[in-house]
Specification:
The chain is an alpha/beta fold. Helices cover about 35% and strands about 15% of the residues. The chain has one domain: Metal-dependent hydrolases (TIM Barrel), CATH 3.20.20.
């Protein structure tokens, strides 16, 4: 069993608009070099969307990010290097921080819920507080609608760590993802998807992807926690898109 791709890695571009926040430590090139060392065939750079209050990319940097990835592709020809983004799911309508002005710069779009995302309404800020402190049923419904509508209304490759930071009715999310051929992530650095969730949705037939969610270069291609989750859940490894036996 071997991992061939890691689509969820962060770089210093996730360190906030003024580069003052120490969130991720590696450069794009350092992540690529680590991926080569780990024997990966594909490495994706996927920094946080620009409506993340603390760790969002500077929207004006997107062209520079694209140019940097294209330059690295010329330098490292033995590995596929992709520019992705981890967008923020902003509200229960499924809006994400992606727009037509920059979409063509990215090879793929992932989306997930984050506490420090900037919602589109006061209700979204209230939901942040509920998720952080209360974990109410109302928040769970809001979170579920947010993920389901994000899947339905956007061109998304992967939903990252579904149910993490804000609980969801995972069966509803899984059914929407199955209908739109969107993969769900088993995140190596977060507790979701966990084995209980995977058992709940096993019969739906989703495709999954393992993501390191690396914030330092040495974490690229590290999937030990995710493999343990898969083993305990009993799901068929053939349903993990970035694994070969």
């Amino acid at each position: 069993m071997r991992i061939i791709a890691d689509y969820h890695t962060h770089t210093i571009y996730s360190n906030g608009k003024n580069q003052r926040v120490r969130h991720a430590e590696g450069t794009m090139e350092e992540n690529v070099q680590e991926a080569i060392k780990k024997g990966l065939k594909t490495i994706g750079i996927s920094d946080h969307g620009y409506r993340h209050f603390l760790y969002g990319i500077n929207r004006d940097d997107v062209s520079r990010m694209r140019e940097e990835v294209d330059s690295l592709k010329e330098k490292y020809k033995d590995i596929e290097i992709l520019l992705g983004i981890e967008c923020n799911i902003l509200d229960d309508k499924g809006n994400i921080d992606m727009d037509d002005g920059i979409r063509d710069k990215f090879d793929y779009v992932m989306a997930g819920y984050h506490f420090a995302s900037i919602p589109t309404s006061i209700r979204g800020f209230i939901n942040h507080a509920s998720n952080y402190a209360l974990n109410t049923e109302r928040a769970k419904r809001y979170n579920t609608n947010a993920l389901v509508n994000a899947i339905k209304n956007n061109d998304i490759f992967i939903i990252t760590h579904p149910g993490d930071k804000g609980d969801v009715y995972i069966e509803e999310v899984a059914k929407a993802a199955k209908e739109r051929n969107v993969m769900l992530e088993i995140n190596n650095s977060h507790a979701r998807l966990n084995e209980e969730q995977l058992r709940k949705i096993d019969s739906i037939g989703n495709r999954f992807v393992i993501g390191s969610d690396a914030h330092k270069p040495f974490m690229v291609g590290n999937f030990s926690n995710a493999f343990e989750t898969i083993k305990k859940s009993g799901i068929d490894i053939k349903r993990i898109a970035n694994v070969i036996e």
